[in-house]
Each structure stands twice: as C-alpha cells, then as structure tokens.
Amino acid sequence: MEVRILDARIHEWGLPDYQTAGSAAIDLFACIDAPLDIAPQAPAVLISAGIALSFDDFSFAGLVLPRSGQGHKRGLVLGNSTGLIDPDYTGEILVSTWNRNPAGSAPITVRPGERIAQMIFVPVLRPAFAVVDSFSRTTTRAAGGFGSTGA
User: Fold this and answer.
1) Strands ordered across the beta sheet of 60-66
2) Inter-residue contact 28 to 115 (CB < 8 Å)
3) Which among 96, 78, 94, 84 has a CA at the least distance from the CA of 124?
4) 50, 44, 16, 12: which is closest to 30 by C-alpha?
5) Is 24 in contact with 63 (CB distance < 8 Å)?
6) Which residue from 4, 14, 20, 61 has the least number of CB within 10 angstroms?
7) C-alpha–C-alpha distance, residues 77 and 65, integer Å
8) Is 90 exposed, middle or buried, given 0-12, 13-18 or 19+ CB atoms closer than 10 A?
9) Ranges for the dUTPase-like domain (predicted)?
10) In order of start, what are the domains of the chain with their CATH numbers?
11) Could you tell me if 97 and 18 are in contact, meaning their C-beta atoms sit under 8 angstroms apart?
C-alpha cells in the first residue's frame, strides 16, 4: 500500500503504525495546527489524519474506528460511528470526531499529533446478485430480527 504524507509533522510523530505486535489497527493522528475544543453534542468536526492511501487492490478496504480509550474515558467518538475508506478513494483521510458527552459538560480538547482514531483493513467481498422469486435454501430464521431470538 502506498502512503502519501500530506502533513510533514507525520514524519516527527511517526508514520501510522501498529502500536503492539498484536494490534489489529493503525492509529491516526490529529493533524491540526492548534488545540481544538469540541463542544459536547455539537456537530461533528472533520480532522485531517495527514495522509492519503492508495490501496492498489480492490479486495480490501479501511475502516476508521474510535480509539477505545478516547471514547470510554473522554467521550470522543466518531460522528459517523464507523468511517469507510473505499479502496478506490485516494484523497485525504479525514476523521469525523464528535463529543458524545451531555450538553453542559466541558469541551474535549484535541491536540496536534494526538492519536484520535484507528484504521483496520478488512477484506471486501463483492457477490454477484441473482434475482429470484424464492430462495433455493431456506432456514428457520426467515423474518423477524431485532431480538427475535430472545434477550
């Protein structure tokens, strides 16, 4: 995978990388010029990760996820829950950040170079669809969902 560095500070902070041998995702940095206060319940804010990617392979994609410590300890989550980086997208990676804390709480301050999100790479399956009048295989779970198997 090719990586374009869009913010030179990435060289100082380190390329997005896996923090441990068992990490499933790379961390993404907040490439902002000054500390940014995000008010609770305010609209989500797009923050540059300072990079662009070229997958060169359409069989996988990137998912941008919140960092668990940021979400649990501070209330900083993603405004879109999960971000999808399609394999044919080569533009700047942006992180939709949102302060989920109750209105009236203190703002969350994001600092330049702070690790604010993570990206995991996943395989993409693209099935061909066949329109049918009835399914060739049936199961006992035809309809319902939303708790249909119990609590």
Assistant:
1) 26-29, 115-123, 60-66, 83-85
2) yes
3) 84
4) 50
5) no
6) 20
7) 8
8) middle
9) 12-150
10) 2-123 (2.70.40.10)
11) no
Tokens of 61: 């994609």
pLDDT in tens, the chain (151 residues): 999 999 999 999 999 899 999 999 999 999 999 999 999 999 999 999 999 999 999 999 999 999 999 999 999 999 999 999 999 999 999 999 999 999 999 999 999 999 999 999 999 999 999 999 998 988 877 666 777 677 6
Separation in Å, CA 87 to CA 105, 113, 127: 38, 25, 16
**Paired tokens of 88:** 């044919």
Tell me how far CA of residue 103 lies from CA of 54, 64, 99, 100, 111, in angstroms.
Answer: 39, 26, 9, 9, 21
